[in-house]
């Protein structure tokens, strides 16, 4: 058993149970590394690494239907810190934006009173990160400022909107899934609502209409059965409304853009996933389930690799990875290669047992690493699965026909060092290498190993079972039991088990299967044992089976306390244990009560038939144990005197006697003493009886006649000199036994279900439970302290109540939750930093802003004065010890693998920056360092090879490095790789086209890509009865006869410019590409605002120098104030190798730490020279970074960077070490080392 420190200041908390159907979609895994999950009207915050609930947010009045973490793609500093911000929408249309750490609401938003359909934070604006887009049913989208709650704009659409998806590559594109089809919006902006109603497309059913056959010309071979099936599953996207029988869009469960490839979208149906290419509006891939397979519920596309996580109806999660288009079969038989995007099943986890009440709801995956998934089950369980990679050949590989997956050759963006430590399962792209593209050879590298993927269950959180519950808190803390006290709460459930929770940690301590029917009540006998009773459903005579069990917590032993009794008798109404835990009274419905001795388990008395019917009963807190003990002590002392005077025995014997006496006195005190105890009860007339029990004698005492103002008494509570009675009409009667006064108070709340006094000496607070809520009363002053009522301040019914400490109450409610609340009974979230967690949680977002930044810097600037350390106290850091302690806790919470990699001297600066941005879930850092590290290394490699003498005509083009940037970086990839990808894609489109429109688009693409022969073939396919037959034929002739003679060139150029001037931009650009004037074409495209198209064309057609000009103009455009996408411009400049410009921009944007580390990396790799032109920038960047470090309190780091910043830095050094004489030796020596490195 875990030894707990005694912390009787229990945190207010909520133990949650099963989910409501409306909570189905309310789950999100944020970049911050935490999962938010709606449970009825509360929101749980779960840490997936240690699988514990670290916060429960309570403020919503209705069920939570959507939760969304804010995105982290902005530069973090003290004014825009790392913070946990969450938006949640409920069924009554209210949206709350939370500060999760403190559990408070930033703002509340209400527009309509219908459930919120979808929520998303805008991710693209460098200007503001507070914008929240919401769908308010039926057909409104509203943009809110999520910090202030102000509405920026609102727009309505013609049909009901179900959900939306943003294009991850272009923030102005989004798609709405409506009840009839899809609406594409291309002019989304935060400053004004979309102008047009969007382009509406309808989807004809993927199963139905026979119209989806290919045009005859495209069918070249008789398809086999499987191919027929694939050809049939075509989605025809049309602009006309389909006929009534073809409309089955309601099947469409989900629409999302693919974050791994531009312009691709995924549609999910129960039995297939369709991948659409949006340029053609055509299906290019299908993942279908065979007839016996389990239907899909949800799919999440990954960004790092072209892979899909799919959730099936049986709770099984499968991972499908896109097959490389270079497969072995293609080489052997070109006819056989079907051109599809094929997603191969690479891994799947175990299914769950699905029943009526247990169904998988939703899955979320970690957005930072994409290698772990969490499954939310309707019964409140959260199952956390991790994807693990195992190297080694698979046995079944040949038969399954799957091409093997390989491990990547790099770690954190750089090739692996010879003896470098690495974490293979760091993220999806460090587990499996890139999907190959047609025309690429496998890199012949010995390091690459085949890899198998497996899911491992790494955590499980389970909730409470379905209500009703019976609660009982263990006996209170006293000075005697303080050393081994645990605040345990026993919860009896409807299925007969008893759950024991430890309220310090909020974790399940034991689950005991005790009964076979619903548990009705629990009474503790000691800190480690309790009695519980359950009654079965009555038979037609009204008789039941009563089970009364004695449970020992330490051993888990259960036995029937009443022996053989219990079958076919009236149900037990209640049981009450006396204050000294000596006696037990069991009260039945239509049968006299029984009195038991709990220590021996014997029946002391079964009352006579004429015994009055008991309506309420309570034991008196007074007893004569103290006087009995005094008498016993006196007697024992007398015996001791006698024995000593009697004889002069040997020392040995006297010690034996004393041992015997001790043993005897112990046994006496535990058993022989039977103290006298009393209980009172009332009968149906309200008469109060008083009965005394001593040993096995039972005496009837005084009777008090009924009070006329009270109805039938329902419950009694007694503490000290106060006795309180509650009746079925809601009256409370307070008796002061000392002063012999009684005072009745009508509460007008109906039946008093239960009353309990708070524990603690002299604490006279009383908890009262009614059918519609609860109240706390102060019995000294006889006045109400606090009250809660269903419908007024809460939306749940209270099922049971108890005190858990002298100032906190615990309530069970019908929404399946059990809440520990302050005496004021306000459901409130708690501050996370007051939580007492069993396992430490790695989440820098929990620290105060400054401490989080310090922690990041501490990890980035290793080694400190020459040593790698994970101990913050070894660094010259001026800060309160409390904050140092919190930072150290975070460092200790890191995994050992992570610590050893971070302390590995082989880890380069670039790898360290990437790794730390991953650890922090810092989206903007991660994108920046991924691109920066790739191109710094690529250009460094190019410089080396040019220096070796093989000059490549153009000095700018890097040689193809060992690995390229993943295609999810789109325009930022190397031109050669980007070109191959585009050709591959157009080839696929060509195979998949099914109408003249598609063919025309393919021909256009091929012309732009310079594939003239293939384009001519397509143009000649146009049938004679088509309106554009003549036009296409002439175009084909033109393409084949173009010569580079001067006159024809100038004519075509003239025609092209006229076309462009008259609004035929695309056609003009095509003509210019035909005569190799693509650079002019790009210029025209940019003039007409088609920036993305121009960048695309530059990547696929121009030589490096021309392409670089086009992209630089684009970067300037991105920096302009009306576009304001500087962070994207920086990435574009990185891909062009304009490192000095990037350094300047970072410094100008006041990204001081990023600027300094970037310049440092450029100097290390030799892609930036420290000469007269760049020195000014380098020194000012280092100086600002030193100032930043000083503001964080890291003096040693500040001195190190200041020492490299020239004269201004010297001034800062003097300020840093004022009054301490000279600069410490370590700084100077380390500076020399760094200086040498940068000159290398």
From TrEMBL:
<keyword id="KW-0539">Nucleus</keyword>
<dbReference type="GO" id="GO:0060271">
    <property type="term" value="P:cilium assembly"/>
</dbReference>
<dbReference type="InterPro" id="IPR036322">
    <property type="entry name" value="WD40_repeat_dom_sf"/>
</dbReference>
<dbReference type="GO" id="GO:0005930">
    <property type="term" value="C:axoneme"/>
</dbReference>
<feature type="compositionally biased region" description="Basic and acidic residues">
    <location>
        <begin position="1229"/>
        <end position="1240"/>
    </location>
</feature>
<dbReference type="Pfam" id="PF23751">
    <property type="entry name" value="Beta-prop_WDR11_1st"/>
</dbReference>
<feature type="domain" description="WDR11 second beta-propeller">
    <location>
        <begin position="484"/>
        <end position="826"/>
    </location>
</feature>
<dbReference type="InterPro" id="IPR057853">
    <property type="entry name" value="Beta-prop_WDR11_2nd"/>
</dbReference>
<keyword id="KW-0597">Phosphoprotein</keyword>
<dbReference type="InterPro" id="IPR057852">
    <property type="entry name" value="Beta-prop_WDR11_1st"/>
</dbReference>
<dbReference type="GO" id="GO:0005794">
    <property type="term" value="C:Golgi apparatus"/>
</dbReference>
<keyword id="KW-0968">Cytoplasmic vesicle</keyword>
<protein>
    <recommendedName>
        <fullName>WD repeat-containing protein 11</fullName>
    </recommendedName>
</protein>
<dbReference type="InterPro" id="IPR057854">
    <property type="entry name" value="TPR_WDR11"/>
</dbReference>
<keyword id="KW-0333">Golgi apparatus</keyword>
<keyword id="KW-0853">WD repeat</keyword>
<dbReference type="InterPro" id="IPR001680">
    <property type="entry name" value="WD40_rpt"/>
</dbReference>
<dbReference type="Pfam" id="PF23752">
    <property type="entry name" value="Beta-prop_WDR11_2nd"/>
</dbReference>
<dbReference type="Pfam" id="PF23753">
    <property type="entry name" value="TPR_WDR11"/>
</dbReference>
<feature type="domain" description="WDR11 TPR">
    <location>
        <begin position="994"/>
        <end position="1165"/>
    </location>
</feature>
<dbReference type="InterPro" id="IPR015943">
    <property type="entry name" value="WD40/YVTN_repeat-like_dom_sf"/>
</dbReference>
<feature type="region of interest" description="Disordered">
    <location>
        <begin position="1218"/>
        <end position="1240"/>
    </location>
</feature>
<dbReference type="GO" id="GO:0005634">
    <property type="term" value="C:nucleus"/>
</dbReference>
<dbReference type="GO" id="GO:0031410">
    <property type="term" value="C:cytoplasmic vesicle"/>
</dbReference>
<dbReference type="InterPro" id="IPR039694">
    <property type="entry name" value="WDR11"/>
</dbReference>
<feature type="domain" description="WDR11 first beta-propeller">
    <location>
        <begin position="22"/>
        <end position="318"/>
    </location>
</feature>
<keyword id="KW-0966">Cell projection</keyword>
<keyword id="KW-0963">Cytoplasm</keyword>
<dbReference type="GO" id="GO:0048513">
    <property type="term" value="P:animal organ development"/>
</dbReference>
<keyword id="KW-0206">Cytoskeleton</keyword>
<keyword id="KW-0677">Repeat</keyword>
